[in-house]
Amino acid sequence: MTPVSCVVRYGFRGLFATLTLLAVSAVAPIAADAQTVSPFLQKPYLQLGDNPSLQKSERLQTLWQTIDEDSDWQVDIQAAGSSEWKRMATPISRRVAITGIEPHRVWKATLDGLKPGAPFTYRILKAGNPVFQATGVARKAANQPVRFVVFGDCGQDTPGQKAIAYQTMLTKPDFVFITGDIVYGSGRISEYRTKYFPIYNADESSPTIGAPLTRSIPFLSSPGNHDILNANFEKSPDTMAYFYYWSQPLNGPIGETGAPSTNTLTGPEENRKAFLAASGENYPRMANFSFDYGNAHWTILDANSYVDWTDSALRAWVEKDLEKAKKATWRFVAFHQPGFNSSYSHFAEQRMRLMSDIFEKGKVDIVFNGHVHNYQRSYPMRFKIYPSAYDESQKARRADGPIAGEWTLDKTFDGDRNAKPDGVLYIVTGAGGAGLYDPDQQRKPNTWQTFTYRFISEVHSLTAVDIDGKNLTLRQINSVGAEVDRFTIRK
Ligand SMILES: [Fe+2]
Fold first, then answer.
1. What's the gap in Å between 464 CA and the centre of ligand 1?
2. Is it true that the peptide bond before 212 is cis, omega within 30 degrees of 0?
3. 470 CA to middle of ligand 1, Å?
4. pLDDT tens sequence across 367-396
5. What distance in angstroms lies between residue 341's CA and the mean position of ligand 1's atoms?
C-alpha cells in the first residue's frame, strides 16, 4: 500500500493524527511528510507484555500497527521531571497476513528501566522523527496504592461502550481489566478496527466518542467466547485477533496447539497456518496466565466450553498459582463466563463452579466475570459441589450445563462496618457496552438466586477498585458517573 492510499483509507483518523502530530511538534521537529500522513494503522497502546512479576526496574510494552513495510522505528522514554530521553531496544514486528485483510505489522517495543509507580513519557520515532508521544505510569510496587477498572462485554460500537470508556477515563485507573467479549461478534481484525481501537484509543475524550485510554493505561483481559471460541477460519479468516493484538504474560499451563482444553481450529489449512504464523507464541498460551500488580495477584482463566476444568493438571496449575501467591495481600481471579449468575441469560452455563473449591482454598478475595451483560454482586460465599457433578457420565453436559451443589453465604458482611468477608465474592461486571441483559430483573429480587446481593441491569456500568494496603473499596459506576454500588473489604 502506498502512503497515498493510506491517506485515502484512513483519511478521517489521519486528520486527528495530524492534530496530535502538530501538538508533538511543539516538543520536537517533525518531518513534513509525517505531518500529513499518519504512519499508523493503529496508534501506540500500552500492554503489560510477558512480565508477570513485579520488578525493581519495571517494564511495559507499547504496540502499534502499520502497513506491511520495513521501517526505521525507535522508541524513547523520559522519566517525569527529567529532560533526558532514553533510547529503548529496537522495536520488533509481527507480520499479520490473513485472508481478506491487507497484510500489516504489529510493532512491539519494551519500555524498560521504569521506576515502579512513576509517571513517564514515551515517544515513537520513525526515521528519526518523533511521530507520536504519550504518557504512562509504570506498574505499582506492593507498597503503593492501586486503582483499577474492570468491565467486560464491551466492543460493540454502542453509545454505552463509549460512555463507559469516557467514565473509565474520568476514574483515572492505573490499569483496565476487560473480562472478555472484547469485540463482537467474532474477535475479528475488522471488528477491532471499528469497535475497539477507535473508542479506547480515541484522540479525544468524550462520552459520545470514547477516550485516549490505551495509549496511557495498560489494558489486560481474559478472553471470552466472542474473542476466541470461534476458530472457524473459513467463515472468519481474521478471527481470534486477540492473539495478534494483545501482549500479556505467557506463564499459563496450556502451551501447545492442539493440546487438550484448546479449541479446534477449522477451515482451510492455509488460513489456519496463517493464524498460527501471525499469533506465534501467543496461541494458545495467552488464554490462561497470571500476574502481579501492586499487592495483588491475578489469576486469569479461559472459561470457554472447550476447557475441561475437571482436568487434574489444569486444576493443579491454578491451585499452585494461588499457593505461590499466598504472600500477596489480595488474590483476584478473572475469567469470562461466571459460575454464579442470577440472570435468565446464560443461567444454566455453570461450569466454572467446578473451580470454586480451589478459589476458596486459595483464599481468593474476588472473582471477576463478564459474559452476562449486567452487574451482579454475590454475598461472600462457599460452594459445596454435589459429587454427581464430577461423574464422568456428566462430562458432556457439564460443558454448558448446570453444576449441582449448595452454597453457604456470609450475610453478616455488609462491606462497611463488617468489612471482613467469610468466603469468595463473585462479581459479574459485563455491562461494559454491549446490549444489556434482563433489565427487568433489577427490580425483581425474587428472580435472583439467593447468593446474589446486588443486581444492576438497567444501565451500563464499570467496576472501579481502590486498594490501599489492607483496605479495598469497590465502586460500581454507571454510564453517567453515578455510583450504583459500593463495598469495602478490610484485612
Ligand atoms: Fe460472552
1. 21
2. no
3. 32
4. 999 999 999 999 999 999 987 766 665 665
5. 13
pLDDT at 10 over 80: no
Contacts of 227 (CB under 8 A, 6+ apart): 180, 181, 182, 183, 187, 221, 240, 242
Name the percent of the chain in helix, strand, coil, to the closest 5: 25, 30, 45
Query: Could you tell me how far CA 60 lies from the centroid of its own chain?
Result: 15
Supply angle C-alpha 79, 81, 87, rounded to 5. 30
The helix (run of H) or strand (run of E) holding residue 93 is strand 92-96
Query: Does pLDDT of 461 surpass 50?
Result: yes
Closest by CA position to 42, among listed 192, 174, 239, 238: 192
What domains are there in the chain, each with its CATH number? 3-137 (2.60.40.380), 146-490 (3.60.21.10)
CA of 427 to the centre of ligand 1 (A): 15
Q: What is the layout of strands, in order, in the sheet containing 73-79?
A: 86-87, 73-79, 119-126, 129-137
Q: How far is the CA of 372 from the centre of ligand 1 (A)?
A: 7
How far, in Å, is the centroid of ligand 1 from the Cα of 107?
29
CA of 268 from ligand 1 middle (Å) equals 26
Give me 219's grid cell: 489494558
What global pTM score does this model have?
0.92
Residue type, 187: G
Buried b (16+ CB within 10 A) or exposed e, 120-150: bbbbbbbeebbbbbbebbbbbbbebebbbbb
For residue 226, the CA-to-ligand 1 centroid distance in Å is 6
pLDDT digit string, tens, across residues 101-134: 999 999 999 999 999 999 999 999 999 999 999 9
Distance (angstroms) between ligand 1 centre and the Cα of 272 equals 23
Per-chain residues with Cβ under 5 A from ion ligand 1 = 181, 224-225, 371
